[in-house]
Amino acid sequence: DRLVEMGVGKKKVNYRIRDAVFGRQRYWGEPIPIYYKNGLPQALPEDRLPLLLPEIEKYLPTEDGDPPLGRAKNWHYTDADGNSYPYELTTMPGWAGSSWYYLRYLDPRNDQRFAAQEKLDYWGNVDIYLGGAEHTTGHLIYFRFWTKFLKDLGYLSFDEPAQMLINQGMILGRSNFVYRIKDTNTFVSHGLKDQHETTALHVDVSLVSNDVLDIEKFRQWRSDFADAEFILEDGSYICGYENEKMSKSKYNVVSPDTLVNQYGADTLRLYIMFLGPIELTKPWNMQGIEGIVRFLKRTWSLFYREGSLVVTDDKPTPREYKAINIAKKKLRDYLKINSFNTCVSALMICVNELTDLKCSKKEILSELVTLLSPFAPHVSEELWQALGHTGSILNARFPEVQESYLADATFNYPISVNGKVRANIEMDLELPEEEVLKTVLTNPAIVKWVGEARPKKTIFVKGKIVNIVV
Hints:
By secondary structure, the protein is an alpha+beta fold. It has 15 helices and 20 strands. Strands 7, 8, 9, 12, 13 and 14 form a 6-stranded mixed sheet that branches. The chain has a 4-stranded mixed sheet with strand order 18-17-20-19, with helices on one face. The termini are far apart.
């Protein structure tokens, strides 16, 4: 109001044409069932549906700038009186029809309605919808709109298409940079760039390994770099880096096919899940993938050593039962909240524990590969078969948590002689006091301090300490 009073501005209402989002200027897509009578849009009668795409000679806009459907012959609606009216020339976007196809998939051969009521009631409400945040502003709006519209018409018993929405975060690419000295074709390494006036240029990440540039491949990459000179540090050209949205223009797009060929599909799957919480934006870093490779190799070594299967049918120890049950409980809880990165972390801790215990028991390892299979299905399937199981691991039940094994079955007692700790001895927590003292007094490390003398006093606190006074 003040700007109007001052005479330096005026009020104006701007209208945004939202149908531009829905009506697409191309051929492929559902035709919009609208015709125009005296310039006003009219809905096509229901008995004239579905409206199918017409044949056209080429899928390009017309010379007048109309969409490709402007090339169609007889693309008009004819009423009962023989009057013809032109159809809409744009088509629906790709996410329009797909917003309700999830319902049609339930009963695709039904020629009476889009799906039988009993199938809609049983299958219709999706458990989890997973889609990127950018996806939400297109597909998800209509995914909900279609569902609410069909609910209002009485076809559905629910008005939200999904019970849970997860917007996965974007994975950022790791861009690399080279630094060209101004007005030259000389490039200076990252650590020396502040000594010169330079321009940072994106370089294809396929030419870089752990931020070290392959100079010969760089010269071959572009003709204008064929005679490039380099100022190195410690004999190498070190590139700068930055985490950015993956883009061809930044040369930081990482091909999944390349990574699968180099590391295997399971490694790639595990690493993507291990990067961080599913909802957060995460930087891609090739250096971290080596840790996943080592984890899978460590898992494999529980089953095979020097190429031979070493699995036994021996009964597991309490500590082995505890390690696997801790992992089962963690995965059960983490999977409920879709915390996949912590699931992978729990599996790593379990494998490290079983490695330290030199575990090769079939009972434990069968449960381990069942836990691993959602994250690394190919390795898990092979190990499952190696254990002698019939059928696929995909049909194996998720192992039940045995709560009794989560409590400590043993305790590492500190053994004190005359007030000073002289040894630590691990013993079963359920051992009676007499057995504990017998074990302690015959242990060589304690005999050394007690000698042949009979202790004047012994103090035993279960699960705490053993104290001997001589």
